[in-house]
Amino acid sequence: MIYLDHAATTPLDPQVREAMLPWLDDAVGYGNPASDHALGRRAWAAVEHARAQVAALVGAMPAEIIWTSGATESNNLAIKGALEFRGHAGAHLVTSRIEHKSVVDTCRHLEARGVRVTWLVPEANGTIGVEQVLAAVRPETVLVSLMWVNNETGAINPIHELAPHLRERGVLLHVDAVQAAGKLPIDLDTTPIDLLSLSAHKLHGPKGIGALFVRKRPRARLAPQIHGGGHEQGMRSGTLATHQIVGMGCACALAAQRLATDAPHLAALREQLWQRLRVLPGVYRNGDPAHSAPHILNLSFEGVEGESLRARLGDLAISSGSACSSATREPSYVLRALGRDDELAGASLRFSVGRTTTSEDIDRAAARVLAEVGALRALSPRWGT
Question: What pTM, to 2 d.p., does this model score?
């Protein structure tokens, strides 16, 4: 199988696995990081080293990194935490219709509890413009929540340009950076983002561990969503999973080291695939190539039925969109928000390349797609009429 679904999850890097193994060993790594004895202090030191590694990837201070179980929890903590700390009464937040489901559903949850939500519609290139956001901001706006890179189309939102305007207005900015970390440079020391979500398994780390950046100065205040022993500065209680945290730290350190080489490698592979497939008539690229992350290519194929195409491409690990939305079996809400009709949105494929993808993989995958699209169109009574 050719794996082209790195936006859903990435294979564990061998160096990450080696870093994690000692913390799964009963002789070394079973201490609780909160325990005040030798084994606990050893685990605590490993956790803090990993915290510094994550902070370094995004230009933050280690004390601004809060461990979570993944980006879904980070998004929930950021959005619910900010609104609950301020109070729901009269509160307003701004987001978009093409966010990850963990943001969309969290905002709907708050909307049902009286928070007013403005749902922005993307521009034709799949991005949310600065002026759109600023026009939606009101005196009572508490938070703006936008993803840096759209997980289905790869479109890059203008976060660098937007953040200073929101800071001037005293509005918190939360950014889901899951698809941006390790692919784009992020420097929170110079970009005034208040809250930023990260996930290890999107950059060759383990599943089940993520982080939320919570700015110290000026301080972003959150109401905790998990109560217990007051861990993680009172924002996220629960015993820390040392082995997963060490894995995320190592993955972030590797991503920082490899950013300058990984990003152009991924972009070259993505463009190689596009050049191979654009020869097909009736193929549409979703998103703006000039404002796109290097690893994602989303295409709609006219004249084919999406489920049939994906079934015939069983030797390719690809998706129709976000893995977190796959249970609905409906056309992508992201592509529909971009103006694709249900048929084209349903006949779309998201290809996402990664560190382990080769040029040979791309050529083989492209040949398979060309063959199967051609075969399905030959069976369609409507194609070519």
Answer: 0.95
